[in-house]
Design brief:
The complex is a heterodimer of chains A (114) and B (397).
Chain A (H helix, E strand, L loop, with lengths): L1 E7 L4 H10 L6 E7 L6 E5 L2 E5 L2 E10 L4 H13 L8 E7 L17
Antiparallel strand pairs in A: 1-5, 1-6, 2-5, 3-4
Helix pairs in contact in A: 1-2
Chain B lengths: L4 H28 L5 H28 L22 E2 L2 E2 H23 L5 H24 L14 H19 L15 H20 L7 H29 L4 H15 L8 H18 L2 H5 L7 H19 L13 H30 L7 H6 L1 H6 L7
Antiparallel strand pairs in B: 1-2
Classes of the chains: A alpha+beta (114), B mainly alpha (397).
Chain lengths: 114, 397
């Protein structure tokens, strides 16, 4: 099992969700986060003064998958997050090994609990 | 006629009340859009206070109220020429009248912004409302109140035709060029903060007392009548909307109740000073029922009237304008008192206004679309208009 963490642009979330729905992946966690990578910040204007906003809004998606679905889920996230142009700041996908999962209600563990 | 102090006070206070409807409208619409578009949506209402106020005193007032022909006023009062501090209109100083009427010119184009949020270029929006104020608003205002061909014929107490039908129909017409928001019908384009919308509804209602009761232009019994009908009709309309939602969907939603109130306010606008409080109840209730069914049309027919500017203002304005012809009993008589001719006059006013507002808006849209363009690029729309049009974000972490 693998644990996928993807950081993407907020405006691409709906597109990523659509791509994942095509694969019938309908278990995911989404959070609003802030950070930056290569993109650095951008300028915002308040009261005629430019301020560097160096923490950018991003969306973090977390999905746990069985190994055989890993590649197709990554492709789906990539397709949705990149859109047509995929300029700098489109995000990153991290893949972590996942030791175990337990479903609280039934005590199932491992892939059965996904 | 001599200036009456009480009338002057009431019209000045009413003018300020109507101006407060703009921040109210900004909150109403701002709460209904996504986080990324809240500032741009609110700016649509706020910038109208700047653009339209200037346009009104420079030329709009003249086109609406100076001596002209059946269709449009003349240029006799351009730059408020011929009006000074001693000028009198009715029983109030002319400056008070210009200010009061100006508030209506300010809010009407801002109502249209509800249909086009999230996808219109800001500079195009400014150009649009400026042109719309001259080409559509001023002539229709002249027809109904300024000595045009509907003056003294059609009953429109506070602007059911002039404000709500024009803005509602124009909302639908401008969508010809702006189309749908990306993701309409696919992604959930959910309201980001309904609490703002409720606060906005409250401010709109508060301001509407000035809008309707101020339209008597005097501190008198008709102002009091318009005041109480403006209390009763929205109350009935809010209840009807809430009951319909409760019955159909299982929940009485806050947004539904607020929308019902707004439909009731639109409904009573043309008849506020012409009907009794007991007639205001069915006017609010009937209009709410019709609007409730009208807002569902956009999903079925596939047009994206984003915040229901047409569904509430257009449809509510039409129904309200026709119901004056049924219920009028003060300063005019309607169907219920055996006068069937008023209904025909109301219908004529409605039809002419629909056709003219649609044609005028299509013309403006065509010109802007061919020149500076109306719609933002796909990526700007995805990122949101707050960042791309204004360089700001509403909520910082």
């Amino acid at each position: 099992m693998k644990y996928i963490i993807a950081m993407i642009r907020p405006e691409r979330l709906d597109a990523v969700k659509r791509e994942l729905q095509k694969l019938e992946v309908n278990r995911l966690t989404v959070s609003s986060v802030a950070g930056y990578g290569a993109q650095k910040g951008h300028l915002e204007i308040y009261r005629a003064t430019e301020h560097e906003a160096n923490l950018l809004e991003k969306v973090k998606i977390e999905i746990a998958v069985e190994d055989q679905f890993l590649q197709s889920v990554i492709e789906a996230i990539k397709t949705g997050a990149k859109g047509k142009d995929g300029y700098i700041g489109s995000g990153k996908i991290f893949v972590l090994p996942l030791e175990n999962v337990m479903r609280i209600r039934t005590n199932e563990t491992g892939p059965d609990a996904l | 006629m001599a200036i009456e102090a009480a009338d002057t006070v009431w019209v000045l206070i009413s003018s300020a009340l109507v101006l407060l409807m703009l921040p109210g409208l900004a909150l109403f619409y701002g709460g209904l859009v996504q986080r990324k578009n809240v500032l741009s949506s609110m700016m649509h209402s706020f910038v109208a206070m700047g653009v339209m106020a200037l346009e009104w005193v420079l030329i709009g007032y003249s086109l609406a109220f100076a001596d002209g022909n059946w269709f449009v006023g003349g240029l006799g009062h351009v730059f408020l020429k011929g009006i000074d501090v001693y000028s009198v209109t009715g029983t109030i100083p002319t400056y008070a009248y210009v200010a009061f009427q100006g508030m209506f010119a300010i809010i009407t184009p801002a109502l249209i912004s509800g249909a086009i949020v999230g996808r219109v270029k800001f500079k195009s929006y400014i150009a649009f409302i400026a042109l719309w104020g001259l080409i559509v608003y001023a002539p229709v205002c002249h027809w109904v109140w300024g000595g045009g061909f509907l003056t003294g014929e059609a009953l429109d107490f506070a602007g059911g035709t002039v404000v709500h039908i024009t803005s509602g129909i124009s909302s639908l017409a401008i969508l010809t060029y702006l189309g749908k928001r990306r993701g309409f019908g696919v992604d959930p384009l959910k309201p980001h903060n309904v609490t703002l919308t409720l606060l906005g509804t409250g401010l709109l209602w508060f301001g509407w007392f000035g809008f309707n009761a101020g339209s008597s232009l005097a501190a008198n019994e008709i102002a009091s009548l318009a005041f109480i009908t403006t209390l009763v009709a929205p109350a009935a309309a809010g209840f009807v909307w809430m009951a319909l939602e409760w019955h159909h969907l299982g929940y009485p939603t806050a947004l539904g109740f607020a929308t019902g109130i707004l439909a009731g306010l639109v409904a009573i606008t043309p008849s506020a000073g012409f009907v009794t409080p007991m007639a205001a109840i069915p006017i609010g209730a009937i209009t709410s029922f019709v609007c409730y069914n009208a807002v569902g049309l956009k999903e079925r027919l596939g047009y994206d009237d984003s915040l229901d500017a047409f569904g509430v203002h257009g449809v509510g304005g039409i129904v309200g304008a026709l119901l004056v012809g049924v219920f009028a009993s003060v300063g005019g008589t309607g169907l219920l008192l055996g006068n069937s001719s008023q209904m025909l006059i109301q219908l004529q006013g409605v039809v002419v206004t629909i056709v003219y507002a649609a044609a005028g808006t299509l013309l403006i849209g065509f010109i802007l679309n061919k020149t500076i363009g109306l719609k933002v690029s796909e990526s700007e729309e995805n990122i949101g208009l707050d960042k791309t049009q204004h360089g700001e974000v509403a909520y910082n972490i």
